[in-house]
Design goal:
seven-stranded mixed beta sheet, 3 domains, Rhopdopsin 7-helix transmembrane proteins, binds adenosine-5'-diphosphate, 7 strands, alpha+beta, 67% helix
Length: 464
Amino acid sequence: MIAMDLPTAFFIAGLLYLALPLTVWLILRDQGYVSNSLWCVGGLAFGCALILFGMRNQWQDILTYELANGLLLLAPLLRSAALRHELHRPFKLIWIGLATVGFIAVYVFFHAVMEKETLRFSFAAFMIAAAFLWLSSLARDIGLRERSISAKWIHAFYLALSVGLALRGVFVLSGHDEPTAIGQDTLSNVLIILGVLSAIVGNVGFLGIFIERMNQRALESAKEQARLEESSRLSDQIAQMDRRRSVGEIAASLAHELSQPLTNIYLITDRMDLELKQRNDTSLDKYFSDLNRNAQIAGDILGRIRNFIRSKNTTFERIEIAQAISDVKALIHDLTWNESFDVQVSLPTQTLTVRADIVQLSQIFLNVIRNAIQATQGQTKRQLHIRVWREGDTAYISFTDNGPGLAPEASHQAGNAFFTTKPDGLGVGLSISKSIALLHDGSLSIGNSPGGGAVVQLQLPALD
Ligand code: ADP
């Protein structure tokens, strides 16, 4: 048996219940004003109730019985309303007021009219236990939703208090205990200790929920910052690669286009040289050999340019297509931040990986998506559907937009270097994408989808 002067203990617990909620309210006054205030008033009500219990036999019964028990019920109800508010399921305070008034009415009936002490006590114990149970279950909801340790502590303590109170009600009803809140039995002592502890745990826990949230927000903003930095790094790399590739593609095409006339010049000079030799005319020999040598030098330079362009730095690694798409989606968010452009992604159930250079693969995605963004301008609802699937050893990624589709002249030429139907277009995006796909042992095709709009399909060898 714990030796304790229960009225004094109630009084101390009451003071604690007054001081702690006020402190918490002051700390949290800038956050969650409604729930913070409800939690604080609930705590004050509980504190007043405990002080009234402590004054039993000294003050009038109406204060130390009816009002004390009414406040004891009101306290967990108000705190439950605070947690409901935090769970975005606000509760009308009028119901709490009506419940408390109804409770006091029944209590008066048992106490003053029927003078049934056992019924009065057990009724109050069960009702208040039910209110604590509600409070505890709401704390559990917050604990699960926010993975909050503090809320779980609140849940555990109020649950214990609820069970203790209900047991006390059962003991009193079955005649094993005295129907008084300041009884000297073990359970009464345990309950008062639980009451004091729940004053501390309840208030510190409520504060803890907000602190945990602040920590969570700080963590999320740090993650977001890291994601943005990563995304802007990738975006810079792609932009740089874009510029280099555009210049490279132009140079490669020039090299290709010039090599034909150069070969012709070479052949023509050879032939002229031969014809003049047949006529025994050697006067132009020196010029022909100069011409030949220079054509040879030009040919070598073009060859070297082509070799240089072919040997690009490529870092192949295992890439999860879903991850690469999600990274690029974050980038296009910046391109379309002020416009509505809906990107829907359908992924296979199993993870699909390819061997690719992430920057180059992202560059294909970005080129294709950029075209879709431009093509869908003017549509009321702009959409792009990215579909990923696997067939045998091949990974497929298709991009279908709801734009007007390929212009008639584009259906055969889109993807050829320098073909463009845009006034400010360069016409290198798709051809770069095609050469990247080839470099990855894949292919890229563009056409019209049966439902309207253009569809670009990328195929790459899938990894196991
Ligand atoms: P650019 O965008 O500079 O024109 P691209 O090589 O990316 O160069 O595209 C070549 C052409 O292919 C475009 O000018 C356009 O005519 C056509 N095209 C590409 N994507 C689409 C699309 N999603 N819808 C309609 N036409 C497209």
